Amino acid sequence: MKIKNIVLGVTGGIAAYKAAELTSRLKKEGYDVRCVMTKSAQQFLSPLTLQTLSNHPVITDLFAAPTTQWNVEHIALAKWADVFIIAPATANIIGKMAAGIGDDFLSTCVMATKAPIVLVPAMNEAMYEHQAVVDNIALLKKRGCFFIEPAVGKLACGDSGKGRMEEPNVIVDYLKRLGRYDLTGKKILITAGPTREALDPVRFLTNHSSGRMGYALAEAAYERGALVTLISGPVNLAAPTGVDVIKVDSALAMYEAVLARFDEQDAVIKAAAVADYRPETVSAEKIKKKDGDWLVKLVRNPDILAELGGRKTRQILVGFAAETNDVEANARKKLVAKNLDLICANDITEAEAGFGTETNRLTIYRKDQSKISLPLMSKKQAADLILDQIGQLWQNE
Ligand code: C5P
């Protein structure tokens, strides 16, 4: 897909001012941008600003005389779009889209488009966490809409939290990647999350992995055209759009799921935190407490990645190394021992770069001994940079 024409829908939130910079940046990148503003958006930003920056009339009213040569304007504009982006997207437009309501120009036009839809939510954190919004976003993702999640920071209402509209430069980068489709047709298998090693029907051993890094990788790979299989341990995350998700529980189940699909893959990225050990025996009944200690014997789980390293033919293999000490030495050792092409290492003792966080600070080590140290960034941005590295390896083949 080559993106040239972008429809930018602007809805009514204070972040609407960022739509001006976004329009300006998109124009500088050579895109043709046509803006649509809702009634509330015009309370925050003048249509004249977007008209001047986009060099096109801004559409604000479903029933006004057409501003273009198209007489059924909401349909013509919907067809013209290569990408339809709504930034900022309020809880209201998200709700209307989820419910199929078209009561103004923007909501009818976005309903009529067959172009990829990218939503950039911005709202107060409590609103973003409201079950209705959460459910609506999950539904829209299921229908294939893309989301650029809000960033964490100071909000206009004075609160701090997740709700700030992502910055225009990040949105432009996102659109460039979406348009690049540089991984089209590549089969990529990604693992994510922790595993659970049962002791009995109610107890298990696990770890702190949230699955966020693996899910971000799956989302990013799909957006770039890859055919993505995500093998996920138990996590609290919505399935990413367009991705084939296979849920597993234990390391052994993950081992079987990965091995069964390995031969057809072009790349495997193992972001899961797989338990190295499992209880030797699993009781079929709940183990009753007794006086004294309970000694559990743990036995080794297979190392899935090492196994893939031994079997690989053409596949690119990427591992993760979550370390608490000697990060570089440990990562390099694993890269060689598991026969990997890349390993992404992070120091999980760092505040913003470990389990459960939205951000990561990774260093990517390559097989040829070189390394790239990434600054602190969102897991999604890190995911794209990891995919860039894989793309480069394919280019050099
Ligand atoms: O050896 P370590 O567990 O630190 O290596 C981490 C990498 O190996 C990760 O990519 C992880 O998904 C993978 N791994 C695996 N199977 C295991 C243990 C780790 O695939 N049993």
**Morphology call:** elongated
The first-to-last residue Cα distance is 24 Å
Question: Largest beta sheet: what is the strand line-up?
Answer: 12-11-8-13-16-17-19-20
Low-confidence stretches: none
Overall CATH architecture of the largest domain: 3-Layer(aba) Sandwich
The kinds of small molecule bound in this structure are: cytidine-5'-monophosphate
Residue share in helices? Answer: 25-40%
| Name of the CATH first level of the largest domain | Alpha Beta
Could you give the count of β-strands?
Answer: 21
**Whole-number count of domains:** 2
Mean pLDDT: 94
Tally the helices: what do you get? 14
Question: How many whole angstroms does the radius of gyration measure?
Answer: 24 Å
> What is the percentage of strand-forming residues?
15-25%
The fold-level CATH name of the largest domain is Rossmann fold
The main sheet comes to: 8 strands, mixed
Class inferred from helices and paired strands: alpha/beta
CATH superfamily of the largest domain: CoaB-like
Question: How would you describe the overall organization of this protein?
Answer:
The chain has helices spanning 17-28, 41-44, 47-54, 73-80, 91-99, 105-112, 125-128, 131-142, 168-180, 212-223, 251-261, 304-311, 327-337, 379-395, and strands spanning 5-10, 32-37, 83-89, 117-121, 146-147, 151-154, 160-164, 187-192, 197-198, 204-205, 227-232, 244-247, 267-270, 277-279, 298-300, 316-323, 342-347, 359-360, 363-366, 371-373, 377-378. Helix 1 (17-28) crosses helix 9 (168-180) and helix 4 crosses helix 6 (105-112). With 397 residues, it is of the alpha/beta class. An eight-stranded mixed β-sheet has the order 12-11-8-13-16-17-19-20, with helices on both faces. It has a five-stranded parallel β-sheet with strand order 2-1-3-4-5, with helices on both faces. The chain is built from 14 helices and 21 strands. It has two domains: 5-180, 3-Layer(aba) Sandwich (Rossmann fold); 187-395, Rossmann fold (3-Layer(aba) Sandwich), CATH 3.40.50.10300. The site of cytidine-5'-monophosphate (C5P) has 14 residues, from helix 12 and strand 16.
